[in-house]
Known about the structure:
single chain
Amino acid sequence: MNLYDLKTEEKWxxxxxxxxxxxxxxxxxxxxxxxxxxxxxxxHDLCAAxxxxxxxxxxxxxxxxxxxxxxxxxxxxPVIVSCEANMSKCLIPIFSDGEFMGSVVVCGTALxxxxxxxxxxxxxxxxxxxxxxxxxxxxxxxxxxxxxxVSDRTFDAIHSGS
Length: 162
């Protein structure tokens, strides 16, 4: 059994698109091994630069993803954390008959009153920090409370069968 046995590709895309619009964050449907199956939305320049560099992708994105997946399996609810770059990341786990089937991942916004770690990002990407600061200034800001509200609603909708 896989995610497409639970919902059609079109239904998953609708869920991803709605989540992307609600949070102004790119979304992805991933299998239990964090392999991306579908996406919605465009990454802003800073996330795109991080994801384009293999070492940064592993050190900033993948490390957080692995931890979140483990926590979401245990809690059986959405998990919201800051990635290594200090941007918001949310993982909404998907279960069927108690089995972890994969997740919907939402990431890439700044958090109010928290600074993106531009020096660390610049070092990882081997870029000028001023350029990273410019990119960070264009990152959308979304509060943790809104992310929690929308992700909880999405989790409930996924698991209610609608």
